[in-house]
Amino acid sequence: MKSNQITLTFSSIAENVSIARLLIASIGGQLDLSLNDIEELKVAVSEAVSNAIIHGYQSVPNNIVYLDLEIADDTLIIVVKDEGCGISNVEQAMQPAYSTDPERMGLGFVFMQSFMDELQVESKLEVGTTVTMKKRFKQTPISSH
Amino acid sequence: MNLEKKIERLTLLLRIDGELDMHTASDLRQAIDSEIEKRGIRTVILNLQDVQFVDSSGLGVILGRYKKLLPLGGKLKITNVPPHIYKIMELSGLPKIISFYIDEAHAYEEGRGA
């Protein structure tokens, strides 16, 4: 697989979450991933981008979310970054059922963790949060002609 | 997301078509809550046959409606869940709390005449 890199920057509005999902679904298709894998990637990206908008930027619309996709060898690396308020206690935020809002399930990080091979969260108060997710895939065999 | 609404006595049936994420979740919440408040709806049946995507924002709204109906003596029922949507719901533990039915008829049947 040829290496590839795509960066998408977009306003922190709810409508853009589906655009982020479309992009990851297209990349998944290019990598010949199974429909199930693509579905899981869509959920993971949706959770990370939703967190950036809802928590990072407290749903304030005029901010920028960065989605960075990189394919290197057999790994798809997804980075979702915001320059929002940051998370004071990352370990606590990643606990299942932890949520600051009773209407939310606190499952965002659980889904990201379940569906990706690696998940890393870096956050600094008043600076922002960067979520790095990695998914390894099988290389498509090189055709014989 | 498109919502097809059917009201029969105190039962609201919603057929949901589209993606359930943070963008559409608030529309769904409003659609259900306004019927609970205005008409005194006590049973909500969600038909998810045409739902293409769900994440924790969508699941949160479903769980939130269940929690809202519970103290009112109401019920939330889910029908026609596509397999890939069910997988996400299962991981969230939702099927342990909320009743799932294969179709609308079964959801209407259960609890009727009680």
Which tags fit this structure?
heterodimer; A: 145 residues; alpha+beta; Heat Shock Protein 90; five-stranded antiparallel beta sheet; 4 helices; 5 strands; B: 114 residues; alpha/beta; Transcription Regulator spoIIAA; 42% helix
Shape of chain B: globular
Number of individual domains of chain B: 1
- What is the CATH domain class of chain A? Alpha Beta
Number of helices of chain B: 4
Low-confidence stretches of chain B: none
- Biggest chain contact: A-B, 25 and 19 residues
Q: At CATH's second level, what is the architecture of chain A?
A: 2-Layer Sandwich
- Average predicted local confidence, pLDDT of chain A: 92
Question: What does this molecule look like?
Answer:
The complex is a heterodimer of chains A (145) and B (114). Chain A is an alpha+beta fold. Chain A has a single domain (4-136), classed as Histidine kinase-like ATPase, C-terminal domain (Heat Shock Protein 90, 2-Layer Sandwich), CATH 3.30.565.10. In chain A, 33% of the residues lie in helices and 28% in strands. In chain A, a hairpin with a 2-residue loop joins strand 2 (64-72) and strand 3. Chain A starts with a strand and ends in a 9-residue tail after the last strand. Chain B has a single domain, classed as STAS domain (Transcription Regulator spoIIAA), CATH 3.30.750.24. In chain B, strand 3 (43-54), helix 2 (56-69) and strand 4 (75-79) form a beta-alpha-beta unit. In chain B, helix 1 (22-39) packs parallel to helix 2. At the A-B interface, helix 1, helix 2 and helix 4 of A face helix 1, helix 2 and helix 3 of B.
